[in-house]
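R.M. (postdoc): so does anyone remember the format we settled on? I'll just put the structure tokens first.
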């Protein structure tokens, strides 16, 4: 007969002992040496080998007045998209929940040191914790199909989600804005007397871990994550809410290059256009081109910002004011051009009138000379010889020459700047000074307004 028997198989090692070995120990010690080291034995001990409706549908407490404390931790993996129009933020989060199940405890030494057990989620009660601001579809949630048990009765469930949540954004400082978005975990069926939510990680730890594991940033940067819970009362029943306040800051460089600097550049070009000579006719067309360019930037800005009249963003005020200033400058250029054209029109009309008077005067002088010659011929019936005709022609030429010189002198005087042209020059000079002062004051005001609000928002 075999003197040795196989007692147990543990971690690939076979232990052989003598048959008489057990006779020297009490029966209880011998039974402890033959404890079940399989997961199946532990599942049988916990009554999890078959369907257990009690563990699936009821809150795992022996006394129903004992509230279930759920420790919930969330980490932010990435900020995928921020939609200002729909006021939503799309992010990638990881979360885990830990609670106590009073019916599922065991001594790990009785089961060869088994200190962890994984079972399907459908076998146990899971807290119905949802996100209040959730606006994503159900397909974006990827819960782990298994949950973890430890000997003390703690249950651990994990999951990841591509979360799209609503966020009331304040775009007053756009693009230097800092948004405070909240992710509120709450229960739809349990109140504060039966279920409590808490976190096991500090705010600083959550922020540092999220920054370290952050995969995608985009145009946003994570500043801080703060956690707090509160229990509002409704219908004499307290609700449970665990709030993760996420503070994110926009990276403004792209908007500064594409919006703010071009608008400022167009404003400077409009100021420089005052030095263009009005006589060449390019000043007005240049200003109109600048105005159309600003309109294109305003259309781009309209697609970014939501339609709101409560808090008009500073950049909208900045853009509209520049558009208004350039528009007024275009109107001033039109007025100056009109005055210049009016002055030229009046000068040409005066010149035409002078020429007409000269022609009338020459014709009158010619007829007068002809009549005098005829009268002299009647008194002295001596026929006119060639010498008298020559004298008459010389007198007519002298009169014409004198009239032309007088008309040329008057035309030369009319070519000098008239009153409308002087009025246009004065208007243009005064408007340029006022326009330059307005632009300087406006830019200083916008700089102070942006800086003060950015500092106040950053300290908030």
């Amino acid at each position: 007969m075999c003197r040795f028997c196989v007692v147990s198989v543990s971690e690939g090692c076979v232990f052989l002992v003598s048959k008489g070995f057990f006779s020297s120990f009490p029966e209880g010690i011998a039974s402890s040496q033959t404890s079940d080291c399989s997961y199946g034995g532990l599942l049988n001990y916990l009554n999890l080998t078959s369907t257990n409706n009690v563990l699936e549908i009821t809150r795992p407490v022996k006394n129903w007045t004992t509230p279930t404390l759920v420790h919930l931790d969330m980490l932010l993996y990435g900020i995928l998209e921020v939609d200002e129009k729909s006021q939503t933020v799309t992010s990638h989060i990881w979360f885990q929940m830990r609670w106590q199940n009073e019916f599922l405890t065991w001594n790990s030494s009785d089961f060869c040191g088994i200190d962890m057990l994984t079972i399907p989620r459908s076998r146990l009660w899971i807290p119905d914790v949802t996100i209040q601001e959730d606006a994503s579809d159900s397909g974006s949630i990827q819960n782990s199909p298994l949950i973890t048990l430890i000997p003390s009765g703690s249950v651990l469930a994990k999951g990841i989600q591509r979360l799209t949540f609503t966020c009331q954004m304040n775009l007053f400082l756009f693009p230097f804005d800092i948004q405070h978005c909240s992710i509120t975990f709450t229960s739809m069926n349990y109140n504060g007397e039966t279920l409590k939510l808490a976190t096991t990680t500090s705010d600083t730890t959550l922020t540092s871990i999220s920054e370290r594991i952050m995969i995608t940033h985009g145009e946003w940067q994570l500043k801080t994550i703060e956690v707090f819970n509160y229990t509002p009362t409704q219908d004499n029943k307290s609700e449970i809410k665990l709030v993760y306040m996420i503070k994110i800051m926009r990276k403004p460089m792209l908007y500064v290059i594409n919006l703010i600097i071009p608008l400022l550049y167009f404003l400077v070009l409009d100021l420089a256009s005052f030095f263009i000579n009005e006589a060449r006719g390019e000043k007005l067309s240049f200003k109109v081109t600048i105005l159309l360019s600003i309109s294109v930037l305003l259309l781009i800005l309209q697609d970014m910002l939501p339609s709101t009249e409560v808090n008009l963003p500073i950049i909208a005020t900045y853009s509209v004011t520049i558009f208004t200033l350039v528009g007024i400058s275009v109107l001033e250029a039109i007025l100056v051009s009109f005055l210049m054209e009016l002055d030229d029109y009046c000068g040409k009309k005066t010149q035409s009138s002078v020429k007409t008077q000269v022609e009338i005067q020459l014709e009158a002088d010619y007829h007068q000379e002809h009549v005098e010659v005829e009268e002299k011929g009647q008194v002295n019936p001596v026929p006119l010889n060639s010498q008298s005709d020559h004298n008459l022609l010389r007198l007519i030429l002298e009169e014409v020459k004198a009239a032309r010189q007088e008309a040329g002198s008057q035309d030369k005087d009319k070519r000098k700047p008239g009153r409308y042209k002087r009025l246009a020059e004065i208007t243009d000079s005064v408007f340029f000074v006022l326009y330059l002062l307005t632009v300087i004051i406006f830019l200083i005001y916008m700089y102070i307004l942006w800086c003060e609000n950015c500092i106040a928002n950053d300290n908030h």
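R.M.: ...and that's the designed sequence above, right after the tokens. Also worth knowing: The CA atoms of residues 207 and 225 lie 5 Å apart. The first helix runs from residue 27 to 33.
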